[in-house]
Structures are given as structure tokens and as C-alpha cells.
């Protein structure tokens, strides 16, 4: 609006200026025309010629009349002179001065005037001779006056034409200016109309906005209270009446401190308002919503959500408070908090229940499955063998349910832990196929494995969880396929640092419609049921497998059509460890023919007897203890080759017992300790490893797993665990004594561990590693560890030749040799 006003004022000023200039110019033109009319050059010259004629006549009369009047003649001369002077002044002078032809004529006339003045102004009276001279002069100048008159007519005509042309041009210019002024006036009128229209529209909008604002304030669900800078309430809407219980007429004029601010908060409110008015620093005002307490008219204190804004007008600062009663919301929030707490307690109770049930169910399952394994080692009739197989299969299904329930608890509570370890991928998938092939054969199905040559290498990852997922996928494929076969295809892509592995499990079953592809991964969803003893209906396997796959950084997807079979694809990223080297088939024996001395520490009587019978059946010597404290007593004096230590026991648990064994210099300080638990292995793995357990196993422990454990320990790098020490070690013991021999062995094992650590973190390379390996090789030879010496000699040759080798694999073999040497050294120093 201000810009419009400035534009209109500027336009009006310009119009006034143009009108003034135009009027001034026209008045000047009119004055010029007026001057030309009063000072008519032609008339002046004509009068001069007439007066000359009159003077000539008077002179003629004077010459003929002896009694002529000299004064009359002089008067006529003066009249002629007066008329002649007009030629030299006024517009005539201007006109004649612009024409060179008039100069001579004017000069002749002026000469006549000068001569006539001389004669007429003499002191004596005029004589006849003077009259005659004047008459001659008159007759001589009259032709010049006539020529001047004619020239004046011509010049005056030209001047008049020029004046008319100038006036016409001025009229045209004035007309153009007038048209322009009219257009400008029209534009200004249009602009003024626009301004008036806009002002009217804004006025309407303002009225509408005011009405809308008033309606909004009146209909607002929030209380809206307006106060001035003294705190006096000047507006109070209907919602505020409902919130605080005050009527508008009652509260207008009162202050907020007197009405709805609690007494305990009034000083803070007063000081805050004062500080804001003095400094303008927003701490509460214009800082958004916050919560505090307010008072109703009844004196009841209740919680509100408040937002205060400020505006400044001619009357000072105004404060507008938007207030919401949140007492109902607070009650609801408290109910939600209580419900959440109850849900958390319920969820915690559920998790505790599942954990406890897992332990309590695993404990009897350990006895059941162990007894069944022992029973199958005896001579049974065909019917008895069938019964044991059915019982074993049922126990396996029940154990799988327990494991899955525990996995769900871990995933939901975020406690599922992944263990990174090096493993051979071909060995993992081949062993999985070997285990599941009998299930496929039961149904007359083929189970084949196809692994890309580029994937035949070692990887770092959680091989246990990977095996669990693949076992579930292949097991499901066998379960829901009635004819044909199942194929496990392993492929992948190698990136710069990691590889993306793809495991595709394809079957020739009934297939799954597209609309059910995602449903099969939901909890407790089983779209179909297998036949025979392989049936399980919990619907948890795929759900758990996908969740674990995603925790591994991958996923499981389904590609299937109804009637065309299904393909479940597991994609998972893994870090490469090393390529596999060809190994002879009998490099890792699976059966132990050597007798080991074993200590079983187990509080459950059934499990203790079952594990004892299994080990005795495998040809080992077994001693037992019922808790950790009793195991310490047995381990204090008698060396053992291996200890099976239960985790949860009364009096002293297995973790504490292991910690004490490793902390003392007893005969079993370095003995291989296997932790056993009926809980999930993840719960205690970290504590067990920190305590010094060599490995960890979840109950129930099957006879095949037990046999593999004994084989790993007894055949570590081909060193028999129970083999007597060789002559070199016996000779050192006889010469140095048991204490010094123990110190030497401990130092050798410590140096060997330093070498292993350097190889694992690749801090050793080239000649430095070759020298360290050479030093360890000499020490192994001195202590009679021939197999370890040979392994170190082989590694030294590769290091000095700078061959490309798998350091991690060599480190693993050296570690196994070190474990075997620990037992040998312990017995050698103990038997001194």
C-alpha cells in the first residue's frame, strides 16, 4: 500500500508539472500574438507615409502663403519624426533588424529625420528656403518609405506565417501532452481502483480472518488466555472456562498469579516475567510447549501442557498462553507404563521360563538320548532296534523344539551372540549332506551337493549358525518332498575383502504359491505337513533361520511355483580365510584307539552315569565328581587327559572350578577342559572361555560328538595324548628335576603361544617369522616333541622361501600340538 501511495503521489505531481508547463507555454504564445496585434508594423509605416504627405502639403501651402505659420510646419515635422521613430523600436525594429535589405532604407529615413530635426529645431522662424529644403527632403524620402512599407508587409507576412506555424506546432504538442495526461490519469484511476479493490478485499479478508480467529479461539479445545505485561488477564476463551472453572466475566481483570498459578510457583512466575520484559531473553516465553501444574477455581492442582507466545503493540507486550489439560493423558500414560512394566515382567518371566525349561528339559534328554545311544551299542532284536530308533528320533525332535524356543528368546531379547571362527566351507556342507542323506534315503530321495570350485576355501564366520540354517533348509526340503530329490548348490561372488556366498536348496516338492512366499517365514506357520517320523508342526524353523540369517548380515528368499518345486536361497557375506589344500583322507582320524584318563564332573546322577558309560564304552578310564569343589580335590593330585565339566552345579559351579584349576600350578593346570551345560551355549560361552575352558558343548552330548571330542584331543597334530614321554623328555626330567622341567616347558609353551598370536594377527612375516619358528623348532626338538618339530620345520622352509601359505591354518595346527604337549609336560613333571 505504501508503494501504491508513493506511485500515485508521483503521478499526480508529474501531471501538475506538465499542466503548468503547458499553460505557461500557451500564455507566452498568446502574449506574442497580442504584441503583434498592437504593434502593427504595416500600419506604422503607412501612417509615416501619410504624415509625410501631410507635411508635403503643408510645405506647399507654406511656400504659396507668405503668411504661413512656422509653428504649424514644425508641428507637422514633429509628427513625421515621431512616426519615423516607430520604425526603430517595437516589433518593427525586430523585423527590420532580421532583414539586410531594410538597412539602407532605414538609414535614408533616419537621415531624413536627422535633417528635418536640424531644420525644424533652429531658433529662428522657418524661411521659405527652409520650407523648400524640407519639401525636397520629403519628396526624396517618400519613395524610400513606400519601399520600406512594402518590405515591412513582406517581412510581417513571413513573420506572421512563422508565428502561425509555431503556434500550430505548440497546439499539436499541447494536444499530445493532453492525450498523455489523459492516459496517465486513466492509469492512475485504474491503479486507484485496484488499490481500492484490494483494500476492500483485504478489509473483507481481515473481517473474515477476525471472525475465523474469534471462532477458532472460541471453539478451541485448548484454553487460550491473553494477559498484558502486568499479568492482568484480558482475554479468556470458552475452553479456558471449562479447564479452570472460571467464567470469563469473573476472571477478566484479575492476574494469572491470583487465579491459576499455584502458590509455590508464583515467585518463579513473577521473576520470569520480569526478567523477560527487562532482557527479552526467552526461557519460557516463545520456547515451545512444556509441562507444569495449574490451579482450578476449586483449588485443585492438575497437570497442563503450556505454550506461551508474545506480541508487542502500541499498548505494550501481550502474552498469549495456550493451555491444555493433560491430566487424562497423564493417567493414560501411567496406565501404559504400568502395562509396559507388566509386559516386560511377563516377557522376562517368559524368557526365564523358557531358559529354565530349556535347562530342565535338556537334563532328562541328556539321560534319555545317552541311554538310547548306549542301548544301540548292545545287541538288540530287530523290534528293539526299531523302538530305539523311534525313541531317538522323538528325542531329537523334542531337542530341536527346545533349541528353537531358546533361539526365539535370544533373538527377541537381543542376546543372540555370533561366534567368529575359521572353518572349511566344503567340509561343513559335505558333513551336513552326509548327516542328512539317511533321512533322504528313508523317503527314496536323492540328496546331492554341488559346490563351485571358487568356493572351496576357508572362511571366517559363525559356522554353527550357518550349519543350523542349512540343516533346517535341507531338512525342510526332504520333509516336504515325496519324490525326486533335493540339491544343495553353493556358489558366490568374491569381493575385495569379503565374499557373498549363495546357498540354494532346491527340491522337487509340491511348491508354494506366490501369495504364501512371505507367510512361510512367519512364526508358527506351517502350510503343509510332511509324512512319517520327520514331521514337525511348530512352524518355527524358517522363521528362526531367516532371523539368524539377517543377524549374519544376509537373508533368505524363496523362489517357488505351485507344482514346480521350491528353491530356498540363503545369501550371507563371509570373510575369506584361506584356500583349502589337498589333504589325505585319513589326516584327521575320527576314532580313538588310545585309552585316556577322563574326569566327569556332573551333579545329575543320571547324566553322570550315562556319560561314564559312554566313555567307558569308548575304552577310556573314567573318574567322577558331583560338583566343582569335589573336582578340585581329585584334580589336585591326579593328572587327567581331559575333564568334562558341567557349568551349573551346587557348592561350586564349573566356571569357578575351571578358574581355580587354571590359577594353580597343579598337575591339571593345562589339561583339556570341556564345558557342558543344559542352558544355551551362548549364555555361558564368554565366561567359560575367560575361565580357561578349551571348548564348550550343549547337552545332550551324543556318543558321536563325544567320540569326535576325544579324537580331537587325543590326535592333536598326530600326537597321542596318552603316549608316554620320550627319552629326551625323561632325560631332561632326570637331570633338571621336575620343577625346572616344568618351568622350561611353561616357557616353551608361552613362546609358542606368542608365535601363534603373531601368525594369527600377521604381525610376523618374512625372516622375522622364520627366525621365531626356527627358535621354537629347536626348543621342540630339545623337549622331544618330534611331530611338533617336524611341523615347525616345514613352516620354517616355507617362510624362508617366502612361499604363499595359510598362516591361520598352520597356527591352528601348532595350537593343537601345543595342547597335546601341555598334557605330556604335565604328566612328565608330575611323575618325577
Put the structure in a nutshell.
This protein is an alpha/beta fold.
- What is the overall shape? elongated
Given helix and strand content, the structural type is alpha/beta
Radius of gyration: 63 Å
**Contiguous helical run count:** 25
For the largest beta-sheet, the strand count, sense and barrel status come to:
7 strands, mixed
Description:
The protein has 832 residues and is α/β, with parallel strands linked by helices. Among the domains are: 2-193; 221-325, Beta-Lactamase, CATH 3.30.450; 417-579, Histidine kinase-like ATPase, C-terminal domain (Heat Shock Protein 90), CATH 3.30.565; 727-830. Helices cover 60% and strands 14% of the residues. It is built from 25 helices and 17 strands. Strands 6, 7, 8, 9, 10, 11 and 12 form a 7-stranded mixed beta sheet that branches. The protein has a 5-stranded antiparallel beta sheet with strand order 2-1-5-4-3. A 5-stranded parallel beta sheet has the order 14-13-15-16-17, with helices on both faces. α16 links the parallel β13 and β14 (621-625). α13 (425-442) runs parallel beside α14. The longest helix is centred in the first third of the chain and has 92 residues, at 128-219. The radius of gyration is 63 Å and the shape is elongated. Residues 528-539, 579-592 and 716-726 have low confidence and may be disordered.
Amino acid at each position: 500500500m505504501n508503494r501504491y501511495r508513493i506511485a500515485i503521489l508521483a503521478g499526480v505531481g508529474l501531471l501538475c508539472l506538465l499542466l503548468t508547463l503547458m499553460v505557461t507555454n500557451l500564455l507566452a504564445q498568446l502574449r506574442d500574438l497580442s504584441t503583434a496585434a498592437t504593434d502593427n508594423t504595416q500600419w506604422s509605416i503607412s501612417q509615416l507615409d501619410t504624415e509625410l504627405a501631410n507635411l508635403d502639403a503643408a510645405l506647399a501651402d507654406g511656400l504659396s502663403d507668405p503668411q504661413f505659420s512656422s509653428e504649424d510646419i514644425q508641428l507637422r515635422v514633429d509628427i513625421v519624426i515621431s512616426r519615423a521613430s516607430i520604425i526603430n523600436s517595437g516589433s518593427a525594429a525586430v523585423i527590420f533588424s532580421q532583414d539586410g535589405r531594410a538597412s539602407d532604407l532605414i538609414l535614408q529615413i533616419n537621415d531624413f529625420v536627422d535633417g528635418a530635426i536640424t531644420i525644424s529645431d533652429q531658433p529662428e522662424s522657418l524661411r521659405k528656403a527652409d520650407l523648400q529644403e524640407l519639401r525636397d527632403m520629403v519628396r526624396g524620402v517618400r519613395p524610400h518609405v513606400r519601399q520600406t512599407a512594402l518590405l515591412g508587409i513582406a517581412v510581417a507576412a513571413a513573420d506572421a506565417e512563422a508565428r502561425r506555424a509555431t503556434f500550430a506546432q505548440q497546439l499539436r504538442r499541447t494536444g499530445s501532452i493532453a492525450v498523455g495526461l489523459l492516459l496517465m490519469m486513466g492509469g492512475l484511476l485504474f491503479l486507484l481502483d485496484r488499490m481500492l479493490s484490494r483494500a476492500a478485499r483485504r478489509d473483507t479478508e481481515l473481517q473474515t480472518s477476525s471472525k475465523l480467529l474469534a471462532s477458532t479461539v472460541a471453539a478451541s479445545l485448548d484454553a487460550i488466555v491473553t494477559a498484558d505485561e502486568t499479568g492482568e488477564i484480558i482475554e479468556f476463551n470458552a475452553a479456558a472456562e471449562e479447564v479452570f472453572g472460571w467464567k470469563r466475566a469473573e476472571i477478566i481483570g484479575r492476574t494469572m498469579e491470583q487465579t491459576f498459578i499455584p502458590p509455590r510457583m508464583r515467585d518463579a512466575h513473577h521473576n520470569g516475567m520480569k526478567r523477560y520484559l527487562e532482557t527479552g531473553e526467552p526461557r519460557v516465553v516463545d520456547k515451545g510447549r512444556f509441562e507444569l501444574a495449574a490451579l482450578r477455581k476449586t483449588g485443585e492442582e492438575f497437570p497442563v501442557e503450556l505454550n506461551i507466545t508474545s506480541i508487542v503493540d502500541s499498548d505494550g507486550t501481550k502474552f498469549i498462553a495456550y493451555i491444555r489439560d493433560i491430566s487424562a493423558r497423564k493417567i493414560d500414560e501411567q496406565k501404559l507404563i504400568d502395562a509396559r512394566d507388566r509386559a516386560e515382567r511377563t516377557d522376562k518371566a517368559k524368557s526365564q521360563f523358557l531358559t529354565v525349561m530349556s535347562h530342565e528339559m535338556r537334563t532328562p534328554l541328556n539321560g534319555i538320548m545317552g541311554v538310547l545311544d548306549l542301548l544301540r551299542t548292545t545287541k538288540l532284536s530287530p523290534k528293539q532296534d526299531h523302538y530305539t530308533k523311534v525313541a531317538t528320533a522323538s528325542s531329537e525332535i523334542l531337542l530341536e523344539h527346545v533349541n528353537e524356543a531358546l533361539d526365539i528368546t535370544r533373538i527377541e531379547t537381543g542376546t543372540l551372540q555370533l561366534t567368529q571362527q575359521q572353518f572349511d566351507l566344503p567340509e561343513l556342507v559335505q558333513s551336513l549332506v552326509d548327516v542328512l542323506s539317511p533321512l533322504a534315503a528313508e523317503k527314496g530321495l536323492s540328496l546331492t551337493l554341488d559346490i563351485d570350485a571358487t568356493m572351496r576355501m576357508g572362511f571366517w564366520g559363525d559356522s554353527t549358525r550357518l550349519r543350523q540354517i542349512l540343516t533346517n533348509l535341507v531338512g525342510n526340503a526332504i520333509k516336504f518332498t515325496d519324490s525326486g530329490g533335493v540339491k544343495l548348490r553353493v556358489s558366490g561372488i568374491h569381493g575385495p575383502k569379503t565374499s557373498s556366498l549363495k546357498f540354494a536348496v532346491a527340491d522337487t516338492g509340491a511348491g508354494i504359491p506366490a501369495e504364501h512366499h512371505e507367510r512361510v517365514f512367519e512364526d508358527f506357520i506351517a502350510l503343509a505337513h510332511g509324512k512319517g517320523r520327520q514331521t514337525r508342526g511348530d512352524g518355527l524353523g524358517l522363521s528362526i533361520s531367516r532371523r539368524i540369517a539377517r543377524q549374519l548380515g544376509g537373508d533368505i528368499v524363496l523362489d517357488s511355483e505351485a507344482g514346480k518345486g521350491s528353491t530356498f536361497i540363503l545369501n550371507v557375506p563371509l570373510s575369506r580365510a584361506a584356500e583349502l589344500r589337498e589333504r589325505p583322507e585319513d589326516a584327521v582320524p575320527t576314532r580313538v584307539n588310545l585309552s585316556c584318563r577322563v574326569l566327569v564332573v556332573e551333579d545329575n546322577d543320571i547324566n553322570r552315569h550315562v556319560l561314564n558309560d559312554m566313555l567307558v564304552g569308548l575304552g577310556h578310564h573314567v573318574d567322577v565328581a558331583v560338583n566343582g569343589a569335589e573336582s578340585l580335590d581329585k584334580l589336585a593330585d591326579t593328572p587327567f587327559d581331559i575333564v568334562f565339566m558341567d557349568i551349573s552345579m551346587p557348592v561350586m559351579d564349573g566356571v569357578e572350578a575351571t578358574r581355580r584349576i587354571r590359577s594353580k600350578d597343579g598337575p591339571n593346570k593345562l589339561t583339556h577342559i570341556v564345558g557342558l551345560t543344559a542352558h544355551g551355549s551362548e549364555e555361558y560361552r564368554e565366561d567359560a572361555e575367560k575361565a580357561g575352558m578349551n571348548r564348550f558343548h550343549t547337552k545332550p552330548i551324543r556318543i558321536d560328538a563325544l567320540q569326535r571330542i576325544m579324537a580331537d584331543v587325543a590326535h592333536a597334530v598326530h600326537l597321542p595324548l596318552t603316549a608316554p614321554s620320550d627319552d629326551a623328555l625323561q632325560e631332561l626330567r632326570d637331570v633338571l628335576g621336575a620343577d625346572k622341567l616344568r618351568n622350561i616347558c611353561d616357557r616353551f609353551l608361552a613362546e609358542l603361544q606368542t608365535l601363534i598370536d603373531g601368525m594369527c594377527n600377521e604381525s610376523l612375516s618374512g625372516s622375522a617369522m622364520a627366525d621365531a619358528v626356527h627358535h621354537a623348532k629347536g626348543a621342540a626338538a630339545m623337549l622331544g616333541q618330534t611331530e611338533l618339530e617336524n611341523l615347525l620345520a616345514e613352516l620354517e622352509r616355507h617362510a624362508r622361501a617366502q612361499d604363499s601359505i595359510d598362516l591361520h591354518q598352520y597356527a591352528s595346527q601348532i595350537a593343537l600340538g601345543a595342547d597335546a604337549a601341555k598334557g605330556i609336560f604335565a604328566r612328565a613333571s608330575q611323575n618325577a
